[in-house]
Amino acid sequence: MNGSFLLTLIWAVPFLTALVSLPVDRDDHRRIKKISLAGNLINLLLVIGLTFAFISAEAEHPAAAGAKLSQFHFTGKTVWLQMLNIEYNIGVDAISVLMMLLTAIVIFCGVLASWGVEKQAKEFFVLLNVLVAGVYGVFISLDLFTFFVFYEIAVLPMYLLIGLWGTGKKEYSAMKLTLMLVAGSAFILAGILGLYFESGMNSFDLQKLAQATFSPEFQYWAFPIIFLGFGVLGAIFPFHTWSPDGHASAPTAVSMLHAGVLMKLGGYGCLRVGMYLLPEGANMWMSFFLVLVTINVLYGAFGAIKQTDLKYITAYSSVSHCGMVLFGFTALTFAGIKGGVLQMISHGLMTALFFCLIGMIYGRTHTRTVSEMGGLMKVMPFLSVAYVIVGLAGLGLPGLSGFVAEANVFVGAFANPAPLYRFCTVLAVLSIVVTAVYVLRAVNGLVNGPISDHYKTLTDASLIEKIPVTILLFCLFAMGILPGWIVELVNGAVHPIYNNLMR
């Protein structure tokens, strides 16, 4: 199969899945769910095939360590709007492929975790599939205008998914999330248009723009706009406040997809657009952003300690761990940037499993308050053990994915000899202690102690619920025990970005 056609097929399948669902009777919930599950299973298989094809292509044509330009495979280009030189221009490097694999795993597990959705199930799964199509489109786009269109397709459905199917302060949370992300999108669009006109090429082509020479004056104002624009979706301080409310109100699959994948679009954009195209601006502003993301890491961890709701604990934890992604990027070292990419993958798997388990536990106990639980290990051993394991991944236990990612981030950040970087690294490392406090306290309150009488009749996970939990647990262990192939792929993709920063 032609590589560019495969990339197109991967984002088109979720759209087609949504279209196939539209004529189905809205009361036929089971058929709607089967269609969505089948579509995302097909996509999972396609992305796995793409991953193997990419590894083969890299083996035949490895990226040069000294390369200044990213090596993209399976490229294809078609003129979209000739007048503005906008193209449907696609291709992938290792970061793109790994993020697509993460997306495919999380959405497949999310559909299974949402098997109990009954309220307007057709509309729910249609919007979910449209959102996923946008995410795939972002990861394959080499034209910045097309990139932005897919980015908006991925972000905007969140308003309805939270506002209609959420819980708690869902309308407030959906509105807050949408307004803040739209504001971030305005910054991104301004930066992209600046790149288009300042390059003198009148092109949105990422590879052409990477060869352009932008003046230092332009980079000094364009970089912070782009970095902040994407940083809003990555929950950068102080524009992170939408995240805890949004995650706490979102339904299970939406929380899984949003925290597991969608927030990673922020870090991906910061790296792919901001740091790669505007290296002088990055070097100028990174000390400032280092301070912000250090606050992210600490604020999120201390914020999680104060929470009693399982979803809010995980949401604040995500603020801290997503801060760790940007912390690795701001280190401006090869190991730090590599660690930031690995953290995107690790946190995506970990937080998807967290929200998956919380949804299943809430569906049985009808509460997310830790103090109202206890002793669940006696009646829900599978779900309880899974929660313990993912908690240990969250605090960076060796053998799980969190250790691999955070070790690279901290080593990379400390490798920068500037005193500010080393001081901030020490603070970020201390956040692990805080993480251990809120993780172990939540685990202890959930699974240990006496069990309430009205919880004694609860059942453990069903077969259809065990499938997504098992898949995500396997991925956490696989990345923690055998990270070599992922690290090698990331190395090849990070070299050109790092070399551009050092030029």
From TrEMBL:
NCBIfam families: NDH_I_M (TIGR01972)
InterPro entries: NADH_Q_OxRdtase_chainM/4 (IPR010227), NADH_UbQ_OxRdtase (IPR003918), ND/Mrp_TM (IPR001750)
Recorded topology in the membrane: Multi-pass membrane protein
Domain NADH:quinone oxidoreductase/Mrp antiporter transmembrane: 141-428
Ligase as UniProt keyword: no
GO molecular function: NADH dehydrogenase (ubiquinone) activity; NADH dehydrogenase activity; ubiquinone binding
Lineage: Bacteria, Pseudomonadati, Thermodesulfobacteriota, Desulfobulbia, Desulfobulbales
GO biological process: ATP synthesis coupled electron transport; electron transport coupled proton transport
Alphabetized UniProt keyword annotations: Membrane, Transmembrane, Transmembrane helix
An annotated GO cellular component: membrane
Keyword hit for Transmembrane: yes
Cellular location(s): Endomembrane system; Membrane
Pfam families per record: Proton_antipo_M
Similarity comment: family membership: Belongs to the complex I subunit 4 family.
Protein name stated in the entry: NADH dehydrogenase subunit M
